[in-house]
Automatic annotation (TrEMBL):
Name of the protein: Protein HEAT INTOLERANT 4-like
Keywords (A to Z) from UniProt: Coiled coil
Bias (Basic residues): 1-10
Source lineage: Eukaryota, Viridiplantae, Streptophyta, Embryophyta, Tracheophyta
Record-linked InterPro entries: HIT4
GO BP of this protein: regulation of cellular response to heat
Keyword Coiled coil: yes
Presence of the UniProt keyword Metal-binding in the record: no
Region (Disordered): 1-51
Coiled-coil features, chain-numbered ranges: 273-308
Organism: Salix udensis
Amino acid sequence: MRKGAKRKRSQKDNNEDEAAAVPAQDNRKTTELTKPPTRAKPVKASKPEPEYYEDKRNLEDLWKDIFPVGTEWDQLDKVYGFNWNFSNLENAFEEGGVLHGRKVYLFGCTEPQLVTFKDDSLLIHIPAVVAVPSPFPPSDKIGIKSVQREVEEIIPMKQMKMDWVPYIPLENRESQVDRLRHQIFILSCTQRRAALKHLKIERIKKYEYCLPYFYNPFKEDDLEQSTEVQIIFPSELKPIFCEFDWELDELEEFTDKLIQEDELSEDQKDAFKEFVKEKVRETKKANREAREARRKALEEMSEETKRAFEVLRFYKFYPVQTPDTPDISNVKASFINRYYGKAHEVL
């Protein structure tokens, strides 16, 4: 090509111009992007504050593991709604306590009471635990009795899925159970609440009427000496509830008085009298059988068992007062139930 002549602009020339037109700053950015990222300096983590947990007491859950006999199923959650403290029961097993070093059988119960808590009046089920120090179980039976039930039942507790089972203190729970020498036995129930819907109402109600049974052959039962009978007569007007004493009451006069008070209709007079006579015969027979059973039990009893009965004592434990629970100091009672009678000591 001659000097001064124009040439056609090529694609290569265009590319070179565009490259030259890119600012130096953009070039630097491109170079920086291709460099490996710089590692950040590790941040030294601060030490977390240590958390402290209060150690569980060795027998802290003892009272909760004991089945509260006779409590309605739908009330059980309310019993455990308060953080009840039974440290007095736990301390009783320590050196110097009334239960220390002894084989002990424990059963629970609840007592409905109206109490004041945080300026409110509440009807609550107060839990209580009865302790029976004894070399043998106080009984393997359960009594079923209520005002509504005319007949009293004394049945093996296993029929109600109850039994005495060993309680294992917290410090021994890592040990082999079969090697432990158990000193604490609790009355337990294996009836699952989830399975109640499959039971008949009568069966469910039986649990509410259960009472731990106890019979001391050295102590004559008050019922053996009693001359009274409980009468529940299905009258046409309304059921008649009364007590008849076969030594103090004269049946004819007793019946006439009920008619005068419009409790009994005239045409049911003879039926009522026969009903009372039958109840008197049943009660006298039961008293005779009880006396005979007591005599036989004493004859067959070993000397060791006799000594155990002679020194037998019942201890009734209530929860101790805490800011989280109602004050129950004014509602504590020594009475346990109609079979055990009164506790020798209330703690």
